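in:
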């Protein structure tokens, strides 16, 4: 018991002094549990997040657009892999994590339950969804868990390319015909509010924020991050000549940031409970990918399995 108290003290000192917690260090069970929850949900988001854009690979309007979109989607798969590895360092294996996604036990970002209906949506996803992800992930580069923090540094570099390619798609549409600009506006209308929901519930309703901030897993609250995203994105919309679909949006000179309207929290909770426009379709696609990939998993582990069998036989 006394030993655990010492370990707790060492852990707290490390958090205080900004020394990263590493996989073999002692950590409180709740810290470990909370990290596995957040990192694995983040990993699932990266992987499920490939689906709305994947839907447009065969319909990209030019070879150049197709190459950039393919590269972006492959990056997201890579992000999922770094994050699953980071979660595994905390002692939960990948198979269990994946099963938690497929059974609906683990969450993934609400945003990926909305459909990508037009090519402009691919621009909006890059600009707004990756844009929101970057705001969150820049803060997470300083998270207290070493493998998560290092993963985030690399991921952020790639996300900034994603955000630019999305913005450039919209810029091209906005400089095109009236019809193309209207398509860009429609994409912004549909993706604006769901992008704000990506930051999670307001701090007062956030179940994990206070503890996560105390342990420096999260370095900023959901509301501050959301505000930061709004403040940096509104001028970008203005440059495109598009209108943010929020009649209450207004610059506040005193605060030096924007005032804005109300998120429809009923919609948010409905989506994270599994009732969004595409929840069932997304999970069905992941389940099909898992089933179709059974032979790959089998082949990848066949040699190790054979080796273990031979070892047992030799020992007998
Ligand atoms: N969607 O107490 P809090 C990307 C859940 S970026 C679904 O505030 P926390 C890149 C939350 O899990 C998107 N569920 O939770 C990309 C909790 O439920 P639980 C992913 C949400 O963890 C771009 C409950 O509500 N980014 O993928 C959402 O302190 C384009 C209470 O909430 C990350 O995951 C939501 N939006 O704060 C890929 C970043 N919000 O677990 C492809 C890392 C909240 O108790 C294409 N994660 N919930 O059942 C985080 O920073 C945090 O987990 C938050 C939530 C900020 C998302």
């Amino acid at each position: 018991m006394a030993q655990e108290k010492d370990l707790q003290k060492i852990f707290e000192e490390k958090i205080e002094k900004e020394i990263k917690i590493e996989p073999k260090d002692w950590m409180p069970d709740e810290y470990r549990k909370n990290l596995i929850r957040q990192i694995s949900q983040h990993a699932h988001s990266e992987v499920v997040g490939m689906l709305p854009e994947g839907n447009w690979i065969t319909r990209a309007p030019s070879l150049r657009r197709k190459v950039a979109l393919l590269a972006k989607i492959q990056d997201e798969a890579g992000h999922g892999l770094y994050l699953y590895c980071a979660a595994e360092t905390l002692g939960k294996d990948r198979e269990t994590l994946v099963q938690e996604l497929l059974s609906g036990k683990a969450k993934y970002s609400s945003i990926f339950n909305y459909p990508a209906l037009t090519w402009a949506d691919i621009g909006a996803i890059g600009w707004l969804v990756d844009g929101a992800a970057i705001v969150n992930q820049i803060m997470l580069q300083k998270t207290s868990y070493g493998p998560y923090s290092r993963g985030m540094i690399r991921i952020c570099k790639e996300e900034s390319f994603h955000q630019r390619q999305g913005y450039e798609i919209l810029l091209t549409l906005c400089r095109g015909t009236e019809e193309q600009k209207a398509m860009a506006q429609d994409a912004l209308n549909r993706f604006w509010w769901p992008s704000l929901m990506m930051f999670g519930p307001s701090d007062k309703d956030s179940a994990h924020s206070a503890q996560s901030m105390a342990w420096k897993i999260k370095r900023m609250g959901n509301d501050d991050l959301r505000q930061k995203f709004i403040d940096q994105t509104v001028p970008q919309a203005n440059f495109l000549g598009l209108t943010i679909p929020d009649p209450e949006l207004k610059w506040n000179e005193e605060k030096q940031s924007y005032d804005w309207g109300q998120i429809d929290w009923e919609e948010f909770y409905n989506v994270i409970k599994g009732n969004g426009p595409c929840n069932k379709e997304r999970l069905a696609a992941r389940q099909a990918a898992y089933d179709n990939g059974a032979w790959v998993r089998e082949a990848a582990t066949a040699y190790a399995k054979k080796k273990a069998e031979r070892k047992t036989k030799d020992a007998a």
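note: The pocket of Phenylacetyl coenzyme A is lined by residues 37-38, 41-42, 45-46, 49, 76, 107, 109-110, 125, 129-130, 133, 136, 197-201, 206-209, 212, 222, 272 (CB under 6 Å).
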